[in-house]
Design brief:
The structure holds two protein chains of two kinds.
Chain A: H1 4-33, H2 35-38, E1 42-45, E2 48-52, H3 90-107, H4 116-119, E3 129-130, H5 132-146, H6 150-159, E4 161-162, E5 173-175, H7 176-186
Helix pairs in contact in A: 5-6
Chain B: H1 3-32, H2 40-49, H3 59-82, H4 98-109, H5 119-122, H6 125-155, H7 165-191, E1 201-204, E2 210-213, H8 218-227, H9 248-272, H10 276-304, H11 315-328, H12 343-354, H13 365-385, E3 390-391, E4 394-395, H14 398-424, H15 426-429, H16 437-451, H17 466-496, H18 512-543
Antiparallel strand pairs in B: 1-2, 3-4
Helix pairs in contact in B: 1-9, 3-4, 3-6, 3-17, 4-17, 6-7, 6-8, 6-13, 6-17, 7-8, 8-9, 9-10, 9-11, 10-11, 10-12, 10-18, 11-12, 12-16, 12-18, 13-14, 13-18, 14-16, 14-17, 16-17, 16-18
Classes of the chains: A mainly alpha, B mainly alpha.
Subcellular location (chain B): Cell membrane
GO molecular function (chain B): hydrolase activity; P-type potassium transmembrane transporter activity; potassium ion binding
Organism (chain B): Nocardioides mangrovicus
């Protein structure tokens, strides 16, 4: 039993040092040095916070907006996560077929040409981004709904397309909320 | 730039960064655990907790100290969860139910971080920061201590003393884990990871829906979660969540963090045994296993081209790199969801854990795990040439081999018996999300992950049931502490020996021959044990 005394006492000390002092100190640094980022990179529209640039929103069904990826949790940050369906499961096959038909119809493209990220749900369920291919697929629909030329919308997409970081990290991508806000702001 | 070239460049940069850190960090850790001097803050700690820092312990005492510390950790974490509703910053969340609280306490104390709960809807900030994250630090420090104690078994002779657990623990936290975590946490915030104590904020989205923007001390926890090869996400989506892992740079940085200490410890090992090339051989073995799996899983996933469960900003190469690194380090954090990988890739991830978490394994546990396998390798080589095997100038006698055999048999026994029990009853089977071979893979993955203290999941399995909370909780405790006690017993046995001089008949344990032997033994032990069940589950799915 001789080891339990030190064990209890060191656990109390560590809880104070690592569980209270450490996170508070990091919070202090974060709040001072990176205030916006530490608080969730919030974005505003006419002075009101409408979301976070890192958290996707559901736009599916609206013709005037670009849509994000399918989400297993309906873009609810209180229920993040993936579908966890097996690739060859009937459940996933059915969902993919449904999404393919829906996207093809909404965007007026051949079902075989629907972008992969329009078919498969994200890992987090709040993925803020889509591939440039999926954005391009939606350009004509959004342009028509807003009475804009495809070239205008395409220019906005290009402005909101990020390449790979440092040229080789990650994937090229388009932030859907930022793009939709820019659309609203320009018209 | 083509996808495959970008993916290769990313792996190259990762290896370069780890290579640059390997020598200084490994040497630094070697100094930490050999220095005679105590820092002022450490001396104060020893006085407060009432231990003599210069009193070395015999292996049974060292082991009892590890167990006592871990028992206290489980009890404290269990109690914190059970009184959550009365703690500040709890976001109005209720007390965690008993079975789940036990499972989570066992999970974080064993460095597993299996999560049968969803972070954002179960755990308040105090339980996360003052409970879970504290165990992220100290469970990694326990692994570090046991690895150092085993190295002392090789380097000391004719003694029964292995060092002092409390000193190793405190130094591991104060001199290694905490400073690195501070730096890592700040880098993560700069990348966009959140770090606040704000309540959840409800906003109205562009389409007029309500959306809750979550907060929390995320970056501080994320840093040690990766660095300590823990893996428990602040949020359910783990490192796929943009608040934990905002972009491609933070992603590669996370993979770097989770590989950093297991890799650097091979240098520490080489330094401490007085022959750096011994550590290089171990590192080469780990790198070989990791590299083969990175190439295989990346190629398979790029070939399939499906994106279910992956994030747009990471894509397939970064997801596959992360998946192999996290299953090979006992970390278990994920940036994509393994359940939706192809059948064969999923099987390789399960096998990666089944190697015993040695490619390169968890903090400390990877090193002591592979050193145990190294003893098997020299034993097998000794049988081939008919000589008494030796490793690092210590004889491998019957006593050492018994301890080593029990050590490597514990994990497969718990995994296979646990999976067997779960498959025998209808209630545990009904937790499966997918049917067919993938359902078996979900259960196998759960026991493999728990027993190897990994923590990742084929997360379709509804694991928050009384059966899984208890069974996996027990699997985590057995998978962690039985090997730890046997490893310390091995260290005690080795430390008592007189070193034998190297002779012409000694198998050199620092060349390519030994690397191939060690990798071969590691793969053969795992493959023979797990091939039947992998064939029934993931490989059957992949070949269908």
């Amino acid at each position: 039993m001789g080891q339990y005394g030190p064990a209890v006492r060191v656990m109390v000390l560590f809880t104070v040092l690592l569980g209270i002092a450490y996170p508070l100190a990091i919070t202090g640094v974060g709040q001072v040095a990176f205030h916006d980022r530490a608080n969730g990179s919030r974005v505003e529209k006419s002075g009101t916070v409408v979301g976070s640039s890192l958290i996707g929103q559901s736009f599916a069904g609206s013709k005037r907006y670009f849509w994000g990826r399918p989400s297993a949790g309906g873009y609810d940050p209180l229920a993040t996560g993936a579908s966890n369906l097996a690739l060859d499961s009937s459940g996933l096959r059915k969902q993919v077929a449904q999404r393919r038909a829906q996207a093809a119809k909404a965007d007026g493209v051949a079902p075989s040409r629907v972008a992969a990220d329009a078919l498969y749900a994200s890992g987090s369920g709040v993925d803020p981004q889509i591939s440039p291919a999926y954005a391009e697929q939606q350009v004509r629909r959004v342009a028509a709904a807003r009475g804009l030329s495809a070239a205008t919308v395409r220019r906005l997409v290009a402005e909101h397309t990020q390449g790979r970081e440092l040229g080789f990290l990650g994937e090229p991508r388009v932030n859907v909320l930022a793009l939709n806000l820019a659309l609203d702001a320009s018209h | 730039m083509p996808d495959s070239l970008a993916g290769l460049l990313q792996v190259g940069v990762l290896i370069l960064a780890l290579g640059l850190a390997w020598r200084p960090l490994g040497d630094y850790i070697a100094r930490v655990f050999t220095s005679e001097r105590h820092l002022a803050v450490e001396r104060l700690t020893y006085r407060l907790i009432g231990v003599d820092p210069d009193g070395d312990q015999r292996w049974p005492v060292y082991a009892r100290a590890v167990i006592a510390f871990s028992v206290v950790g489980v009890v404290l974490l269990f109690v914190l969860q059970r009184v959550q509703a009365h703690l500040p910053f709890s976001l109005g969340l209720d007390n965690v139910p008993t079975a789940l609280a036990f499972n989570t306490a066992a999970s974080f104390v064993t460095n597993t971080n299996w999560q049968a709960y969803s972070g954002e809807s179960t755990m308040g900030y105090v339980v996360q920061a003052a409970g879970l994250a504290v165990q992220n630090f100290v469970s990694a420090a326990v692994g570090l201590s046991v690895a150092v104690a085993l190295i002392r078994g090789f380097t000391r002779s004719r003694t029964d003393r292995l060092g002092n657990f409390w000193v190793d623990l405190v130094r591991g936290v104060v001199r290694v884990l905490l400073p690195l975590s501070v730096v890592a946490a700040i880098v993560l915030i700069a990348c966009g990871a959140v770090q606040n104590l704000s309540d959840n904020t409800v906003v109205t989205t562009l389409l007029g829906h309500h959306q809750t923007i979550t907060g929390g001390p995320v970056a501080s926890q994320e840093a040690i979660k990766q660095l300590g090869t823990n893996g428990g996400g602040f949020y359910n989506a783990n490192a796929a969540h943009p608040f934990e892992n905002p972009g491609p740079f933070s992603d590669l940085f996370s993979v770097f963090l989770l590989l950093l200490l297991p890799v650097a410890l091979t240098r520490t090992f080489g330094r401490l045994v007085g022959d750096v090339r011994q550590g290089v051989a171990v590192l080469a073995t780990m790198t070989l296993l990791w590299g083969v799996l990175v190439v295989a899983v990346t190629a398979l996933e790029l070939h399939a081209g499906t994106l279910e469960g992956t994030e747009t900003r990471f894509g397939i190469p970064s997801s596959a790199l992360y998946a192999v690194s996290t299953t090979g380090t006992s970390t278990g954090s994920v940036n994509s969801f393994h359940s939706s990988y192809g059948g064969v890739s999923g099987g390789l991830l399960i096998l990666n854990m089944g190697l015993g978490e040695v490619a390169p394994g968890g903090v400390g546990s990877g090193l002591y795990g592979i050193l145990v396998l190294a003893i098997v390798a020299v034993f097998v080589a000794g049988l081939m040439v008919g000589r008494t095997p030796e490793y690092l100038r210590k004889k491998i006698t019957g006593r050492e081999m018994k301890l080593v055999s029990l050590n490597i048999l514990t994990m497969p026994l718990v995994v296979l018996v646990g999976t067997g029990i779960a498959m025998s009853f209808s209630a545990p089977r009904s937790s499966m999300l997918n049917d067919g071979p993938h359902g078996l893979s979900e259960v196998l993955y759960a026991f493999m992950s728990a027993t190897n203290n990994n923590g990742s999941a084929f997360a379709g399995l509804s694991a928050d049931t009384t059966f899984y909370n208890l069974a996996l909780g027990i699997a985590m405790l057995l998978g962690r502490f039985v090997p730890i006690v046997l490893t310390l017993a091995l260290a005690g046995s080795l430390a008592r020996q007189q070193p034998v001089p190297e002779s012409a008949g000694t198998l050199p344990t620092r060349g390519p021959l030994f690397v191939v032997m060690l990798a071969g033994v590691t793969v053969i032990v795992a493959a023979l044990t797990f091939f039947p069940v992998l064939a029934l589950g993931p490989f059957a799915e992949g070949l269908r």
